[in-house]
Amino acid sequence: MQWHQRNVLLTPKYRGFHLITGDISNQVREIKEIKIGFLQLFLQHTSASISINENADPDVRVDLEASVNRICPENQPFLHTCEGSDDMPAHVKSSLLGCQLLIPISDGRLALGTWQGIYLCEHRDHGGPRRLIATVFGQMLN
Q1: All domains of the chain, ordered by start, with CATH?
Q2: Other C-beta atoms within 10 Å of 124: how many?
Q3: Alpha-carbon gap, residue 39 to 104, rounded angstroms
């Protein structure tokens, strides 16, 4: 059994759903060394989330953003407002979608479905760089 852990830094993104599958594959090269195992991703933030969803049609990203904004709009009477009107809704959205994923690895590749991709769900207007801890574990290819 082999274990690797790496910090992944994502560049700042505007509010929305951003496909990061390529960022993960490029920064976590140890995935290519695993015959059978898992990639565990943990986002170290409370106002963004990560998710797996449709990776082909960009309209899905727009619809997902519109949907979470309907679920938790900014015009609620929140008590926590010291960081701006987009902050508390971002915390709610992050709690709903989550901050970690577990993805199977098969023969050196993420075993995502044909139309699946990994998303950073940025819930702040200007969230800044985001950090993930990526842990790869499993049986080596050789």
Answers
A1: 2-72+83-140 (2.60.120.460)
A2: 23
A3: 6
Backbone angles phi, psi at 91, to 5 degrees: -65, -40
Q: What is the pLDDT of residue 11?
A: 97
How many CA within 13 A on the CB side of residue 84?
Answer: 9
Distance CA 42, CA 30 (A): 17
| Average pLDDT of span 85-103 | 97
CA distance 28 to 14: 24
* pLDDT tens for each residue of 2-46: 999 999 999 999 999 999 999 999 999 999 999 999 999 999 999
Residues 41, 50: contact at Cβ < 8 Å?
A: yes
For 111, 118, 121, 128, the CA distances from 54, given in Å and listed in that order, are 14, 9, 13, 24
35-49, 53-67, 74-88, 127-141: least confidently modelled range: 74-88
**Other Cβ atoms closer than 10 A to 22:** 10
